[in-house]
Amino acid sequence: MSDAVKEIARLSEEIRRHDRLYYVEARPEISDLEYDRLLKRLQKLEAEHPELVAPDSPTRRIGDRPVEGLEPFEHRVPMLSIENTYSLEELKKYGERVAKLLPGEPVEWVVELKVDGVAVSLIYEDGLLTHAVTRGDGRVGDEITHNVRTIRDIPLRLCPLSQRERGDIPPLLEVRGEIYMTNSDLVRFNEEQTRKIERGEKAELLKNTRNAVAGSVRQLDPRVCAERRLRMFCHSAGDTSGLKAKTHMEFLDELRGYGLAATPYVERFPSFDAAVDHCQSLIERLHELDFEIDGLVLKVNGFEQRERLGSTSKSPRWIIAYKFEKYEATTRLLDIRVQVGKTGTVTPVADLEPVELAGTTVSRASLHNADEIERKDVRRGDVVVVEKAGKIIPHIVRVEKHLRKGSPRKYVFPSECPECGRKLARDEGGVYIRCPNLKCPAQVKERIRYFAGRGAMDIEGLGDKLVDQLVSDKLVQSYGDLYRLEQRQDRLLNLERMGRKSVDNLLDGIDASKTRGLARLLNGLSIRHVGARAAAVLAERFGSIDVLMDATVEQLSETNEIGPIIAQSVYDFLHGKFGAETIEDLKSVGVKMESDIQAGGSRALEGKTLVVTGTLTKYTRDEIEELIARHGGRAASSVSKKTDYVVAGEKAGGKLAKAEQLGVKVISEAQFERLLKE
């Protein structure tokens, strides 16, 4: 008997360790087959010795007898709903309200994903899972412990890795989070169900992950939930009395220490504005996720500040959800082709059977990179689910493999550039595959297009079709060649739709671009990882290209908002052969490389803070904010007593009202332009 006791204890501990490595730390040590062998060995021993089966045994996850009904359970601490908004402007107004409630205090914020699943509260007593409860009406939920026990990344007993930490488990821990299902598990489940249907067995296909989870956790028979491979991310606490953490980031680390899967991709920011800026970059990464989200959550990091902020009758004041509309449609993938971008990135694109999505007809979607095609197993002819969230371009969520006809071939990513034939190379340690040929015609065209764009050098008259002609006819092979076109007017006149007036307008636009300033130039050079914001920060910090080129990587990375990756990229570009030659060439044709105020701007707005609100008729938001910077001003995101002007367009909302309340001067676009001239 003693041997059985030891072996059951050893196997149970080993399986729990592998559960933690797989679900919490994402670094599995064994294959699924090896894991299943361990589990079957434990099942066999427990069948031989049923008196040794512990309440937290890993074998208890496969589902016990059905329950008669879901019992109500009153939450120790109410599960309040959280305030939410779909508007960026309302989101910023929320940040202003919190700042008023904590006047003069620095407030750290965290941003995390709002997972689209089912909210649940877990209660551990002396480290053992005793209750799992749905949100219900916030005060009373349904006990679903019988189903939650089948979810493998929820430990039945808290299991810190070290013996020392085991003594630190609080007597009561109430953790809240979201039960979800991955898209790949939904695909796998529907494939299995389809095979059952083909064999004449009773089976049900699941439409989407959200419905799958909602329908699973409320099942009376836990075996149904067990076969659906649900998971959970923990993101907050109910009763916090047993916690050691003083901040949200510490709390997530503490959860991981107990063996719980904490919500991923969480980042901390020193201000609300910085947290809001980060939101867009997260939305653009939705295609990387294998689970669905329907928004982002912004939280005050410090627990003591949360306590002082308190709650309304409906929701805590220290948290808000920034949600976005999600639209989904099913269509057929007709073909996969690749495009070469301005930095040589070779991006696969899916050509789709046209489908209506969010009021527009969608006929293509980005597949982002070769790894994504492999991970989602996308093949020509597949039926795919296409999603559009917020304002981002559509992306493929998953393949409906149960609808796949025959055995279509796997997509093979090209090994050579489709434009120039050069052998492609994968980024070291990265996912992107690039054409290394800087003179590749596709790269040259994309770089020139971006350089001439409104956010960069803003060259009037230089559209996409003209760029194609200029590069194809060898008139332009570099940025500097644009400024030498004046010497090739006869060849310009021979191009399609280029008469004397068009040529003159183009040359005038090119000449005017020489004084756009350092920020626009840096943005236009297509330096990897450098966009408009990083370019503006670098221009303001260093003032001229010569000072920037003299800076070390350390000096660059010490610049506010410029991290080590951007710093290294800028340094490598400016000191590499291509970048150094490009700078010298542009200098030789008279392009000014000083900061915006010195190059083509003025000091009309020096020392002034302006806020732009509403819909403008003449400028985009980026354009007017760049114009403010070029003339020495500062573009702020919120109105305060320190604001000098509010530039108001149509449908101006809360910022206009705030300006009127504070007595801040409100001006129109026309008045703004007169201000610059004065």
Descriptive account of the structure:
The chain contains 26 helices and 22 strands. The protein starts with a helix and ends with a helix. It is 37% helix and 19% strand. The strands form 6 sheets. It has a 5-stranded mixed β-sheet. The longest helix has 23 residues, at 2-24. The mean pLDDT is 88. It folds into 6 domains: 2-62, Helix hairpin bin (Helix Hairpins, Orthogonal Bundle); 83-323, D-amino Acid Aminotransferase, Chain A, domain 1, CATH 3.30.470; 332-385 and 400-436, Beta Barrel (OB fold (Dihydrolipoamide Acetyltransferase, E2P)), CATH 2.40.50.140; 441-515, 5' to 3' exonuclease, C-terminal subdomain (DNA polymerase, domain 1, Orthogonal Bundle); 518-588, 5' to 3' exonuclease, C-terminal subdomain (DNA polymerase, domain 1, Orthogonal Bundle); 609-677, BRCT domain (Rossmann fold, 3-Layer(aba) Sandwich). Helix 25 (654-662) links the parallel strand 21 and strand 22. The chain is α+β, with helices and mostly antiparallel strands and 678 residues long.
